[in-house]
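Researcher: Here's the sequence for the chain we discussed earlier.
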Amino acid sequence: MPGHRKDWLPEVRKAWARIWDSPLAGELAEEDQILLAVAFEALQKFYEKPTVLGGKVVMGIFAPFGITPLDRRRLNWTRQKPQDNPQQKPAPAVHTGADPRDVLDGVH
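Model: Thanks. This is the structure I predict for it:
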């Protein structure tokens, strides 16, 4: 955590640790730590006094770091998906009752 403050909230400390333990950490340059310090200061202020405007500011500051799914898409980052279990068969589709398209009278 940036050393300019000693009273970081636990939520902010946890978010800091998650970033540095994530695959994102490998994408960050040393210079990014300054921007992250600003971002986490904004996050600290948001947790101390949450407002909609504060939330928008935090989202805007974190955007370059690919924190949200939309940001990752914009940066063309992908996350590794869990491997499917080839031995697990998909559950069969179960259909009971009338065809729901019957209410569309004459369309199908």
